[in-house]
C-alpha cells in the first residue's frame, strides 16, 4: 500500500516493486526514494533512445553505479529495450567514429574492422593470450594478427615490424636504439612473451613514460604510424610496467564465440591468404574446396569449445592448419582425379588429425570430415547444411559467402548444435557452457588487474607448512628410509618385482635426502614440500610391498601412484610371470583390474582389462588416482574372429607360444591347424610377413614394438620345426601302421558358426 501511494508518475508499479528488490544490494540503497524525489531526472535518463545510456546517473545518490550495475538498473525498470540498449552500449564503448558506416564488429577475427578502430588509438596495445594451463586456446597467433593489422593500417606503405622476445631481452642500449628508430620512422615494436620478464630496465620504462606523456600533452615527437605492442598471458598482465597498463588498450586474443563468428573469422583470414596467391591458384574450381575447408575447420573448432560433448582432449588447432589444408588443396589435390577425397584424407591423417592422440577424438574428426567433404550427414543435421546453403546461392566467392552466411544466421531457426552435428537435446548443454564462459569473462572484466594473481599467492602462502615441523618430518622420513635400506640389503630372494620395488625405494630415499639437504627457511623451498604427506605415503606403501609391513591400501593391490615409474612396475609383473611360468616374455599378457579411488564401486573378478599398452600417454590405468590388482598370468589364447588375418595371427601365436614348447608330447594334430600352418609357410603368406603386417596396425608400433625382428625370425624357424616334425610323424605312421597323426575336423567346422561367417 505504501508503494502504491508513493509511486512516482510515469513509472509502472511493477518496476517500482522490482526496484525495491534491487535495493537489497548495497549499491542500490535508496533507489525508490530517489525515484520519488527526482522523477523527471530519472525519466529523462531512462528514456530510450538516449545518449546518456552509458553515462553516469544524473542523480547524485546513484552516480557511482558501474556499467554492469547501470545495465541491471535498465533491465529492472525498462526491460523491453535491451536489444537496442545492447547496440547503443557497443557503439558508445567502442567509440566508433561512424557507427552507421561501420557494419562489421571489430574483433580479432576481423582484422580490417579492428584496424579501422585501432587507428584512432595512439597509446600502446596489450594483446592478452589465454592461460596455457586452462581449457581455452587462441585460434590465431598474435604475431599473425599484428602482421595483418599492419597491412590494413599501412595500406600501400608497408609497416616495418620489430619483434623483441622478452624471454631473452637484448642489451639495454640495443633496445633503446630500436625504440628510437621506431619512433622516428614509424615502425611497430612488439614485446613478445612479456610474462617471462623478471624485471624491466629502468631506462626503458622511463623512455616509454616520456613517449606516452608527450603524446598526451599534444607534443608530436613520434611518427604517426608508431605503435607499441605487448603480448602476454591473461593471468600475467601485471608483468607489463604500470605506466604502460594505465594508457594501454587491452585486446583479448580469444577464440570466436559462436559458429557464425568462427566461419566469418576463417573466411576473412582465408580471403587475405588468397589475395597473396596467383589468380590461377584461386580458380573457381578450387574455390569449392576452399569453402569446404573453411566449414570443416570452423566446425571442428566450435565442437572443441564444447569439449565434453565432442572432444575429450583439447587439440591445438589454429588458423595455420586452415592455411596448410588450403595449400594442400592447391598443390596436391589438383594432381588427382577425386580432389575432394584426397583433401578429406589429407585433413584426417596429416593436418587436423595430426594433432589428435586419442582414438575416439580421431573418429570424431573423421566423422566431421566425411560430412564436410562428402554427402554423409549426422541423422539429418550437421555441417552439410552450411555447404548446401552456400552452394544454393550460386557464386562461390569468399566475399559472397560472408554475406550469405550472415543473412542465414540472422534469419535461421537452426541452432549451432544442429549444424555442429549434435543432437537436439545437446543444445541446452551448449547453452550452459556458453553461460559459464560468459560468466567467467564478466567476472574477469570486473576484477582489477593483478587481484586474481595476488589472491592465488596469498592462498599459497596460507597453505605453506611450518618450517620447523617440515624439517623434523623430512628428517624423520630420511632416517627411516636410510635404516630400512641398510638393514634389508642382504638375505632377501631376488625377483623382477622385488628388484623394481627396491629400486623405487632407493630412488625415494635419494629424493628425500636431496630435499632435506636443500631445505632453507624460505617460501620458495617450502613450496616444493607441500606434497610431503605424499612422500610419507609412498614410503608406507613401498614398505608394505617389500616387507609386508601392515596392510596395503587397498588390500592385495598395488597403487601405481606409489611408484616413480609405473610403467616399469607393469613390465616387472610381466617378467615375473614369464619367470614363474617358464614362458617367453612375448607370450605373456597382463590381466589387471581397475578400481575407483574412493572404493565405493567394486569390480567383479571377471571384469578385467587385458592387452592395454604400457604407455602413460595413452593408457588410463597409469593415472595416479587409479589402483591395479594383479589377477593372473596367462599365455595368449585364441578367440574366434571373422577376420582371417587376425585368426591366422592369433593361431600361430598360440602354436608358437603354448604348444610348440612341448610339441614332442603331442600325438595328433587337427587338419584345420595343419592347413593353417602350411598356409603360413607359403611365400605370399609367410608367418613373419603376416605377423609384421598385423603388428604395424598398432598405433604404438613405432614407439615400442611388441615383437622385434629376432622374434619374427624365430617364428619362421619354429614353424619350420613344426612342419618337419609332423612330416616325420606321418612317415613313421605309414611305416608302423600307427594311429593317424592328422585328425580330420573339417566336416564339423564347416557346419560351425565361426566358419559360416568367413
Automatic annotation (TrEMBL):
Residue intervals of the FAM20 C-terminal domain: 667-736
Cellular-component GO terms for this entry: dynein complex
UniProt domain Dynein heavy chain region D6 P-loop: residue ranges: 142-238
An annotated Gene Ontology molecular function: dynein intermediate chain binding
One GO BP: microtubule-based movement
InterPro entries from the UniProt entry: AAA_lid_11_sf, DHC, Dynein_heavy_D6_P-loop, FAM20_C, P-loop_NTPase
Name under which the protein is recorded: Dynein heavy chain domain-containing protein 1
Native source species: Oryzias melastigma
Amino acid at each position: 500500500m505504501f508503494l502504491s501511494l508513493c509511486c512516482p508518475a510515469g513509472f509502472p508499479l511493477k518496476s517500482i516493486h522490482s526496484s525495491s528488490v534491487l535495493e537489497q544490494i548495497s549499491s542500490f540503497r535508496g533507489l525508490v526514494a530517489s525515484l520519488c524525489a527526482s522523477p523527471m531526472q530519472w525519466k529523462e535518463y531512462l528514456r530510450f533512445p538516449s545518449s546518456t545510456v552509458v553515462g553516469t546517473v544524473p542523480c547524485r545518490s546513484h552516480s557511482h553505479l558501474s556499467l554492469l550495475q547501470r545495465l541491471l538498473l535498465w533491465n529492472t525498470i525498462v526491460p523491453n529495450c535491451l536489444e537496442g540498449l545492447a547496440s547503443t552500449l557497443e557503439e558508445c564503448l567502442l567509440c566508433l567514429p561512424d557507427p552507421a558506416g561501420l557494419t562489421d564488429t571489430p574483433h580479432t577475427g576481423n582484422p580490417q574492422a579492428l584496424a579501422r578502430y585501432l587507428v584512432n588509438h595512439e597509446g600502446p596495445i596489450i594483446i592478452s593470450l589465454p592461460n596455457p594451463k586452462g581449457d581455452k586456446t587462441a585460434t590465431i597467433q598474435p604475431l599473425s594478427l599484428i602482421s595483418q593489422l599492419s597491412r590494413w593500417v599501412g595500406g600501400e606503405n608497408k609497416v616495418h615490424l620489430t619483434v623483441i622476445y622478452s624471454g631473452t631481452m637484448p642489451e639495454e642500449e640495443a633496445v633503446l636504439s630500436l625504440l628510437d628508430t621506431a619512433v622516428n620512422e614509424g615502425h611497430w615494436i612488439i614485446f613478445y612473451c612479456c610474462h617471462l620478464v623478471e624485471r624491466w630496465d629502468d631506462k626503458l620504462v622511463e623512455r616509454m613514460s616520456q613517449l606516452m606523456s608527450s603524446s598526451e600533452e599534444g607534443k608530436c615527437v613520434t611518427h604517426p604510424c608508431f605503435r607499441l605492442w605487448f603480448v602476454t598471458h591473461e593471468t600475467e598482465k601485471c608483468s607489463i610496467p604500470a605506466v604502460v597498463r594505465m594508457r594501454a588498450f587491452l585486446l583479448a586474443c580469444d577464440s570466436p564465440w559462436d559458429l557464425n563468428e568462427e566461419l566469418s573469422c576463417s573466411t576473412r583470414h582465408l580471403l587475405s591468404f588468397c589475395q597473396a596467391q596467383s589468380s590461377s591458384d584461386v580458380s573457381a574450381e578450387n574455390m569449392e574446396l576452399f569453402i569446404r575447408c573453411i566449414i570443416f575447420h570452423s566446425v571442428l573448432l566450435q565442437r572443441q569449445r564444447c569439449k565434453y560433448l565432442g572432444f575429450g582432449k583439447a587439440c591445438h588447432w589454429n588458423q595455420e592448419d586452415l592455411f596448410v589444408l588450403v595449400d594442400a588443396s592447391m598443390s596436391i589435390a589438383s594432381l588427382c582425379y577425386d580432389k575432394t577425397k584426397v583433401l578429406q584424407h589429407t585433413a584426417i591423417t596429416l593436418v587436423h588429425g595430426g594433432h589428435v592422440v586419442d582414438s575416439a577424438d580421431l573418429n570424431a574428426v573423421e566423422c566431421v570430415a566425411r560430412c564436410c567433404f562428402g554427402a554423409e550427414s549426422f541423422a539429418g543435421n550437421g555441417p552439410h547444411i552450411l555447404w548446401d546453403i552456400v552452394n544454393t546461392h550460386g557464386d562461390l566467392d569468399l566475399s559472397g559467402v560472408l554475406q550469405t552466411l550472415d543473412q542465414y544466421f540472422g534469419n535461421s531457426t537452426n541452432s549451432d548444435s544442429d549444424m555442429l552435428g549434435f543432437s537436439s537435446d545437446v543444445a541446452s548443454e551448449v547453452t550452459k557452457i556458453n553461460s559459464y564462459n560468459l560468466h567467467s569473462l564478466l567476472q574477469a572484466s570486473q576484477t582489477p588487474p593483478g587481484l586474481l594473481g595476488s589472491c592465488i599467492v596469498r592462498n599459497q602462502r596460507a597453505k605453506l607448512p611450518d618450517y620447523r615441523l617440515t624439517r623434523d618430518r623430512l628428517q624423520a622420513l630420511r632416517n627411516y628410509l636410510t635404516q630400512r635400506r641398510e638393514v634389508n640389503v642382504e638375505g632377501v630372494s631376488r625377483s623382477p618385482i622385488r628388484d623394481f620395488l627396491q629400486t623405487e625405494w632407493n630412488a625415494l630415499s635419494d629424493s628425500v635426502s636431496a630435499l632435506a639437504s636443500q631445505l632453507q627457511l624460505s617460501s620458495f623451498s617450502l613450496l616444493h614440500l607441500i606434497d610431503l604427506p605424499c612422500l610419507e605415503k609412498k614410503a608406507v606403501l613401498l614398505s608394505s610391498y617389500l616387507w609386508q609391513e601392515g596392510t596395503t591400501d587397498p588390500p592385495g593391490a598395488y597403487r601405481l601412484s606409489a611408484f616413480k615409474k609405473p610403467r616399469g612396475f607393469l613390465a616387472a609383473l610381466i617378467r615375473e610371470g614369464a619367470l614363474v611360468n617358464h614362458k617367453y616374455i612375448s607370450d605373456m599378457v597382463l590381466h589387471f583390474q581397475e578400481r575407483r579411488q574412493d572404493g565405493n564401486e567394486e569390480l567383479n573378478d571377471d571384469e578385467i582389462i587385458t592387452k592395454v599398452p604400457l604407455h602413460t600417454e595413452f593408457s588410463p590405468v597409469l593415472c595416479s588416482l587409479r589402483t591395479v590388482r594383479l589377477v593372473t598370468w596367462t599365455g595368449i589364447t585364441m578367440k574366434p574372429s571373422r577376420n582371417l588375418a587376425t585368426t591366422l595371427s592369433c593361431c600361430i601365436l598360440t602354436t608358437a607360444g603354448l604348444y610348440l614348447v612341448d610339441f614332442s608330447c603331442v600325438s595328433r594334430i587337427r587338419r584345420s591347424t595343419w592347413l593353417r600352418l602350411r598356409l603360413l609357410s607359403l611365400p605370399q603368406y609367410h608367418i613373419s610377413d603376416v605377423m609384421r603386417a598385423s603388428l604395424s596396425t598398432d598405433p604404438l608400433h613405432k614407439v615400442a614394438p611388441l615383437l622385434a625382428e629376432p622374434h619374427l625370425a624365430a617364428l619362421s624357424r619354429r614353424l619350420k620345426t613344426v612342419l618337419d616334425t609332423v612330416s616325420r610323424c606321418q612317415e613313421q605312421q605309414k611305416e608302423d601302421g600307427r594311429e593317424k597323426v592328422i585328425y580330420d575336423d573339417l566336416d564339423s567346422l564347416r557346419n560351425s558358426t565361426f566358419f559360416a561367417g568367413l
